[in-house]
């Protein structure tokens, strides 16, 4: 058997395992949610976000979809309501790169539901396909995937409802953003150590790192900057999301019992969506599973500040 055939066999086995996981019901003993609980899924008009919204509603929550384009978002909700009768969906326009859009969305959530219980930060962009590694849209990628996620998280935290089980923030990320990945990592060992060390990690460090990258993109020196060489802008934006996940988990862990917010990120895999040009090897329904699981699962010990794939913890 060739290496290519072995790799295909491993992928097929993994897909079967993920499909099996999706059939395992959540125990009624651990079911803390009802239709009164609200989940917000950003960028949920298609792909992984749409599937996460569908599955969360299928478990009985009220789910708010968002999209930049109102018509596209309303069409997604209409389609879900037609396919999934009896489930609770709502929609509101949201552009996570626009501070006024975020403020308007916050006001609507507060007025309509009084708050939320789960935030899934799914909205993101990628402009590279196949072997491409263009940095033409690097500023947009970092602004959306990192700054947009960060700003949305900060805006939603005050609206997250206190409870004994804890509110949840789930960030859709990527293995491409691993700090110590073997093939696609930062070559600057000192910077890797700083970003890896939770005692040294700060929002200022994350922001400064990615401002440096954008400045090097603008002056044409980024290739000598020691940045990841595969999907450079996207990989870095997800590295920032992973770092911010750990930072926020640390800060929010100081909250007293009953006001806890658990923050984790996950890699959905290489998924058949518009972002990959439909070249992925995983269906959205399987890719969404870990995000839904992190949104709902209860454990004896709080799970926060971790990175997951296929319901397994992986290294940042």
UniProtKB/TrEMBL annotation:
**Highest taxon listed in the record's lineage:** Eukaryota
Query: What Enzyme Commission number does this protein have?
Result: 1.1.1.-
The first-level EC class reads oxidoreductase
GO terms for MF: oxidoreductase activity
Q: Identify the keywords attached in UniProt to this record, alphabetized.
A: NADP, Oxidoreductase
Stated family: Belongs to the short-chain dehydrogenases/reductases (SDR) family.
The molecule here is called Short-chain dehydrogenase/reductase
């Amino acid at each position: 058997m060739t290496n290519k055939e072995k790799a295909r066999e491993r992928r097929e086995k993994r897909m079967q395992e993920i499909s099996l996981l999706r059939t395992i019901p959540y125990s009624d003993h651990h079911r803390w949610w009802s239709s009164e609980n609200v989940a917000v899924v950003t960028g949920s008009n298609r792909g992984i976000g749409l599937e996460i919204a569908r599955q969360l509603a299928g478990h009985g929550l009220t789910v708010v979809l968002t999209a930049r384009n109102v018509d596209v978002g309303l069409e997604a909700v209409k389609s879900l309501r037609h396919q999934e009768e009896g489930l609770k969906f709502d929609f509101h326009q949201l552009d996570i790169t626009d501070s006024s859009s975020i403020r308007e969305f916050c006001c609507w959530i507060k007025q309509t539901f009084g708050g939320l219980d789960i935030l899934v930060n799914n909205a993101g962009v990628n402009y590279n396909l196949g072997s491409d590694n263009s940095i033409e849209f690097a500023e947009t990628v970092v602004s959306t995937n990192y700054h947009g996620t960060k700003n949305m998280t900060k805006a939603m935290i005050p609206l997250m409802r206190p409870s004994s089980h804890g509110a949840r923030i789930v960030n859709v990320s990527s293995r491409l953003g691993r700090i110590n990945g073997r093939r696609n990592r930062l070559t600057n060992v000192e910077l890797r150590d700083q970003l890896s060390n939770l005692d040294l990690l700060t929002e200022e460090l994350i922001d400064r790192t990615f401002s440096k990258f954008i400045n090097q993109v603008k002056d044409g020196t980024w290739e000598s900057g020691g940045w990841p060489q595969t999907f450079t802008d996207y990989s870095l934006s997800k590295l920032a999301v992973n770092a911010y996940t750990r930072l926020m988990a640390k800060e929010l862990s100081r909250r007293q019992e009953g006001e806890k917010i658990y923050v984790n990120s996950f890699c959905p895999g290489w998924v058949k969506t518009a972002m990959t040009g439909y070249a992925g090897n995983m269906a959205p329904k399987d890719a969404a599973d870990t995000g839904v699981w992190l949104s709902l699962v209860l454990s004896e010990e709080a799970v926060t500040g971790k990175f997951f794939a296929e319901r397994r913890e992986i290294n940042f």
